[in-house]
Amino acid sequence: MKILPVMPLRDIVVFPHMAAPLIVGRENSIKALEYAMNNNTEIILVVQVDAAINEPGAADLHQTGTISKVLQLLRLPDGTIKALVEGKRRGLLVEFVKQPDFFMGRVEEFKEHNEYDLKNIAYHRQLLLSFKSYAARNKKISPEVVKSVESIADPARFIDVLASHLPVNSVDKQAVLSKINLPERYALVLDIVSRELELTELEGAIQAKVRKRLAKIQRDYYLTEQIKVIKKEIGQDKDEHGAEFDELAERIKDKNMPVVAREKAEQELKKLKPMPPSSAEATVIRNYLDCILSLPWQDKSESELNINQAEKVLDEDHYGLRKPKERILEYLAVQAQVEKLHGPILCLVGPPGVGKTSLCKSVARAMEREFVRISLGGVRDEAEIRGHRRTYIGAMPGRIIQALRKVKVNNPVFCLDEVDKMSTDFRGDPASALLEVLDSEQNTAFNDHFLDLDYDLSDIFFITTANSLH
Q1: Is the pTM of this model over 0.70?
Q2: Residue 159: what are its φ and ψ, rounded to 5°?
Q3: Chain segment 393-435, per-residue pLDDT in tens
Q4: What's the rounded Cα separation, in Å, for the pair 189 and 138?
Q5: I need a surface site. Which of 273, 294, 338, 398 has the fewest CB within 10 A?
Q6: Which domains does the chain have, with CATH numbers?
Q7: Using CA atoms in the order 155, 157, 158, 164, what is the torsion angle rounded to 10 degrees?
Q8: Measured between alpha carbons, how far is 303 from 111 in angstroms, rounded to an integer?
Q9: Cβ neighbours for 92, distance < 8 A, ≥ 6 positions apart
Q10: Which of 291, 283, 229 is CA-nearest to residue 265?
Q11: Which residues contact 315 (CB under 8 A, 6 or more apart)?
C-alpha cells in the first residue's frame, strides 16, 4: 500500500495505458502535481461524483482511480497549469491523509489478471467487431485509432484503450474503470459499444429522413422556379396570381366607395403585385384589400319609415312597455322629418330579461332595416372598438367594422348591448373610443386603426342598452 498525492478530476477519466493532457486551475491540485513532479513519485487521479463541487472531500470522490506518472508541467499565463500525465495502473483510494496544501491518500494497487481463456477470447472478438462497426459509422473515431486498438494483444490494455476512445460521458467511463474483474469489464464495454452503435444507427435513419424531405423541398422549389422562367420566356408570365390581381382591380373599379378609399385600394394593389405570394406582407395586404372591398361604403337598404306601421310592429312584438314605445315612436317621428338626426342616442335601461334587445330588433323590423347587435359586456380593450394597426401580427378591424362587413349595408339598426359593463385597463378606455362612434359630430369620419381610412357611420341607427344608470 502506497501513500500518494491525490488529484480530483471533474469530468475526465484517465485510463491505464493512456496519456492525457490536463488543464489544472485549483490550487490544491497544482500543489499535488508539483509535489509528484519534484519528488519523482506517482499520483492518483480520481473522478469527482459531482463535477460542480470546487473543494471536494473524501465523500465527493470515487474510490477507484488511476495511479499515474506526471510527465510534464507547464505554467500558463493565466496562472493555470497544463499537465501531461500517463495512467499506469488501477488503484483503490483506501484512506485520506490530510496535508496543509493538498490531500495525500493510502492507495491499494490492483493487479490485472489477464487470463486469455475461451470466454475472454469470445468477448475480445465480439467487442472488436462491434467497435469496428461503430467506428465505421462515427466520424469521431479515425481508422488509425481502430488499427491501433486492433493491434493490442493484452486483454486489459485492449479494453482500457478502447474505452478511452469511446465518445461517452464520464459516468460510463468511471464504471469501466471501477470493474476489476476482466470478463465483467469486457461485458460492460460491449454493452456500451452496442448501445452507442444502436443510437448511431437511429440517428443516421433520422438524418436520412430529414435529408430526403429537404431534397424534396429543394426539388419542388427548383421545378417551380423553372416553370416561372419558362412561362416568362414564352410570354406567359401572367400566372395564376395575375388572374387574382385582375379580379382585385375589377372589384376596386366596380366598388361603390369614396375616392380616398379607392385610391388607397389601388395603391395597396400596386404594392402587392411585385411581392412573392407566400410572403407575410403579401398576406397582410390581401386581407386589407378584402376588408376594404367587403365593406358597404355607400350601400344602403331601402326603407320607408311609416309611424303607424312602426307602432303596429312594436305592439305585435311586445305587450305593454308603453313608455319605451312612446319614446321610440317620438324619436322615429322626428327622424322621419329630417334627413339626418343630430340628436341623442336611444338607451334602453332595465334589468336582464325585460326585453331591451328584442325591442331593438322590433325597431329594425319597423324601420325595414337590417339588425346588428354586439355585446360590450366585459370589453376592456380600446382595439375592440377601433381595431388593431396593421403593423401587428394577426391585426383585425374593430367590432363595428366587422359587423358592417357581415350585414353588407351601411344603414342598419345597430344595438350596442350592455354599454355599462365596459371597463378600463392599461390597454385603453373603450368607452372613450365608443364616443367617436356615437357622437353625430364625429362619426361621419370614424377612423378604424386597421382601415386607416375615414368611414361614415352617420346613417346607422344606434341604440344602446344597459342594466343600470350608474
Answers
A1: no
A2: -65, -45
A3: 888 999 999 999 999 999 899 999 998 888 877 777 888 888 8
A4: 17
A5: 338
A6: 2-109 (2.30.130.40), 112-237 (1.20.58.1480), 240-294 (no CATH), 307-466 (3.40.50.300)
A7: 150
A8: 108
A9: 63, 64, 65, 107, 108, 110
A10: 291
A11: 325
